[in-house]
Structure prediction request, 200 residues.
Amino acid sequence: MNRTVAIVGRPNVGKSTLFNRLIGERKSIIDDISGVTRDRIYGEVEWNGATFDLIDTGGYVDNSQDVFEKAIKEQVKIAIDEARVILFVVDVMTGITSLDEDVADMLRKSKKDVLLIVNKVDNNKRLQEVAEFYGLGFADLYSLSSISGSGTGEILDEVVERLPKEIEDAELTAEQIEEMKIPKVAIIGQPNVGKSSLVN
Prediction:
């Protein structure tokens, strides 16, 4: 049962800030210099009684000859393969960039369930600029500020809704689990036709 979510996007859109916000601790390093997050970083999110695994990734740069950016690109692709749902993060302050379009193209080819997350939306002016990002071709668009946390609740509600439901077998006894596997048969019929003798 895959309950894994990956955060992807180009460099410096706030992926690690969002990751830290959702897992509730500072696990990913945050810096204005791109390339700080290189490997996949894993954490666990708990929301309204549900849990899921979250992956933070480095900034995706397509067609780069830089050895670090090529390695990051491979790590991003592995995270996408592992995930059931993708949070594609973009930056409202810069608008759509060519790197955003590269990530969008890759995600469309992946056939994964993608939520487009417009980050750094912390005032009404920026909220009005969010609509531009529908141009990337994803219907499910959400805005938030990963620094303040505003908007994260709605996104978490949607993520949990899209993930397969957790089976609470751990709370059942071994006897109860075995009983669930036994086929149930009901004997029906008119009164006094010998149903009881079938059971005996």
About this structure: DSSP finds seven helices and six strands in the chain.
